[in-house]
């Protein structure tokens, strides 16, 4: 009998700061606020925390955070690379550590000031490692330029249109309308506004891009046994996976045989292999949406439809509440906040607790994904 | 200070910062040659360049001369906000060219009306997926040459 992560751990606490274009407190303060809120939500004392996980891009390290919040002796800590691709793996690493007895109470977090902070691609002095020497001199400077290249090819190959990307942006904006914590709460989106918006990188416009946000989030992971005695309804980590496909290159994955089949395909194979259910049993999905284009690509990768069918999948309100696959019910990176996807984890937990502002009735299973287009990760959560 | 040290051209465009594996590409480009790294044992082409062959794990490499012909696999048109040197020419055109000699290999580049023309010198209405292009070379700073692309039938 091999060890398995299936339902052996649960997320028992979630916390977050407000989200805004600009917040005054430094990232470390925001991180501590989110972590303490998550521990309070769980009803667990900070001194019980003995594991931490975050992103390599996180600038508040575990030494500082553990000291500030009053953690106990820490016996496991982990950092996940590749920006937004790391979100779900933070929880997965904690789940693995707890399941294998390396720790008992784990905290994952992300604190970020990208709304008010600098954008790295605006700095001409930044060192340009591979593969930047093959892209940046030609003016492919920002993540949106890199993804727009895939978007144009996807439109050409499969007949995807801007209306399909609009369907994604609209579903996220409609859910933000229901979420008072969302940056775009109270700011409805119309098709006309989308179609006449300024270009950022053709074929992608302003509304195809996520929000630059200041804010922090955290969640608490413990063993399933411990979870049953805590104050919140446990949300079990049913399956988890990371994905770094053979010959993958990161954001500019232009040199593989099949650039439109990204890391989600690799993560999905492992995710479903270790699960008791399949895509058609997923009640609600939180899919990483730094750009609208990532949604149809991910819908295909995670097996909600066939290759090339992701754009058509978005039609007829499929991603709206009551649709085939309600998506990003807090508003996602496109309309709630862009905090490297951590808000998608916390929203998945709220759905399975039954406390989302856009609750899917009876939701018992949720897919959460991390950044597609970079080495990625994903979680299947269940109540 | 050399342009490579400075990091940009006189008009603010970024210069390639080669790594050890990529250096030969730029050295050949400065001679007006488009060459792609290949395995000296199994002959497989690979890009971006790297120390060893993913097929046979050989560290023996050679750089194979390409015809410079290809077609547009995809293209984008960035608009500001951008770095100042690029914002001045924006919106401009960036293409991903699939090489005729090596279909698995695609190079990011700029379609231009002449080797030294601006990044926005081609009417974007002329760009389409599948359009044939051929490589030309532009010295964008002293000693720094990049491949650019001319439409075959503009
Ligand atoms: Zn070889």
UniProtKB/TrEMBL annotation, chain A:
Instruction: Give residue ranges for domain Thiolase N-terminal.
Output: 10-182
Looking up CDD domains in the UniProt record yields:
SCP-x_thiolase (cd00829)
Signal sequence coordinates: none
A molecular function (GO) term: acyltransferase activity, transferring groups other than amino-acyl groups
Q: Thiolase C-terminal domain: from which residue to which, for each copy? A: 264-375
The cross-references to InterPro entries, in alphabetical order and at most eight, read:
Thiolase, Thiolase-like, Thiolase_C_2, Thiolase_N
What NCBIfam families does the database record attribute to this sequence? PRK07855.1
Q: Which PANTHER family match?
A: ACETYL-COA C-ACETYLTRANSFERASE, NON-SPECIFIC LIPID-TRANSFER PROTEIN-LIKE 2
Name under which the protein is recorded: Lipid-transfer protein
UniProt organism field:
Streptomyces cinnamoneus
